[in-house]
Structures are given as structure tokens and as C-alpha cells.
Give the backbone structure.
Amino acid sequence: MRVTSLQRWVDRWNAFWFPVSTTRNLAIFRIILVATQLFWFFPPLREHLNLLRKNADFVEPQMFIRAITAVVPREALFTPSAFTALSWVTFAVGILALVGLFTRTSLFVLALGVWIFVAHLYSYSDVHHEAALFCIVLLALAFAPSGDSLSLDALLRRRREPAGADASGDERRVDTAMWPLKLAHVLLAMTYFSTGMTKVIDGGPRWLNGYTLQTYILGDAVPRGFPFGIWLAQQHTLCVALSVFTIFFEVFFFLSLVFPWTAPFWFLGGVFFHSGPYEAAGHDFFQHIVLLTALLVCTAPAWWQTWGSKYLGRHRSRGGREEPAPAGLEGSLR
């Protein structure tokens, strides 16, 4: 009985993390994340050079920085010339990761370079979890078959295959293509739950009275010059509703893991959830928005098809026999 029960949990674990799916979804996820990292979130070299020139030491070195300096002397790597070279190398391998050439290696080097820049910046200033989360997911892509579809690696592989071979290319189906997307989903849920419970524990009812949110919005919107935020801060009833929505979204986002059929709605709600603070006070959580959008783009179509197959009977053949559900979230829906 115990073995059966344990095996059941192992099967559920594997069904969540390793459902058989096409590598195309992972490839689209790779392209979205790498493209935004290169052309939107790429580390600002000028800011890093300024920090290196004006600081003889770190203010509060991050663990990753401490690990590097334990092996490489600070004066060897943390110099303007070394960081300039690191920036060019990181961008170059990022282009390789984007087009899918030597995909695993280029993704790993890209993630490592971004990690160094992010950890270096955080060694002088506040830590922002959205950048760290994005880096973790970027690194995870290096350990998955991210280049098996929509890549130069896939194109070269198909050309090397003998004539008559099954060169499915972008239609490869494996059980290791979805776990980076699952990891991004789980990390988002952990992040939201942590911030939501912090508000509940530290602020309690004060976070729901509307006045707290009004104070925060007004304190940021006025010095930053955001007219919409100044107007919003004067709408008490609306701020009460937004406060309740904030707590609800952050604390209960994990339900998208428990009930996967609700996930697309949570992803879409998250995009609007982060757009509000930016429009009101300039608080940008663009990396979270990109992750949520990428998850929505890569999983929602498969979810809709699977949901239709399971509950609406849309995937039935003319003979009345049910056809297999499409790949994507089928493992999570069981």
C-alpha cells in the first residue's frame, strides 16, 4: 500500500514537471526571453562602469559576487575594461542563443554573463527579485532542449540526417520540454505568495483600508510626475478595491498551479496587475510581464485545445472515437 501511494505521488510529480510535449513551445519561450533580455533588459554598461570607477569596493556584495572574488581577484575582473569585454561577449552569445546556434552553450554563457551583471549591480544597491527570477529561468533554458526547434541547430541536424529519415525537426516530442516553463510558473507563484503574505502579516487590515495604497501611490506619483497616479490616489473607493485585488492576486496566484485550467486567466490578470503600478507611479515589473506573457503565449493555446478535448469533446474523430489531446499542459491537467 505504501509503495503504491508513493508511486502515485511520483507519477503526479512527473506528470506535472515532465509531460510529453513538442519542443516548439520551449523554442518560442526561448526566443521571447532571449530577445527581451538582449534588446530590452540588457545590462546598462555605462551604469556598471560608473559604479566600478567610483567604488573601490562593494557596498554589500552578493553571494555570487563573493564566490567569484574568492576565485578571481577583484582587480582582474571588476574593472571597466573587463566589464566592457564581458558585455560584448554576453551580447554576442545572446545572439547565438536567439538564433539557436550552439544553443545550450550559448544560453549558459548568456545567463552567466547576465547573472554577473545583475549580482554586481545589486552589490551596490537594492535587490529586486524580478531580475533575479528572470535570470534563473534564463539559466534553466540551458539545461533543456531549447534548441531542438526553431533554431539553426535544428536546421543543421535535419541536413545531417540521411535521406528518408524521419526528420520531424520542429515536431519533436519529448518529456523535457516543459519543465523550464513549469519552473517559471512555480517561481512566480512563490514570489507572489511571499510578497502577498508579507503585506498581510506586516500590514494586516491596514493594507485593505485604501489609505495605505493612496499614500504609496501619491508618494511616488507626485515626485515622478505621473498624472494618472495623482488622480488615482484621490479615489479612495477605487484604492480599496485595488488593495483587495492586490492581496487576492498575490496570495492566491498559486491556485493556478493547483487548478491548471485557470492558469491562462491568472497569467493575463498578472499582465494587467503589473501594468497598473507602472502607469500610476512608474514601478516597472517588465520582466514579470514578459514571463507571464511568454507563459500565456506558449501554454494557453494548448490549454484551450486540451480543455476542449476533455470537456467539450471537440477532438473526436468522425467514427466517434476520441483523438489524443494536443501536447502542452496535458500532464498538468490530470
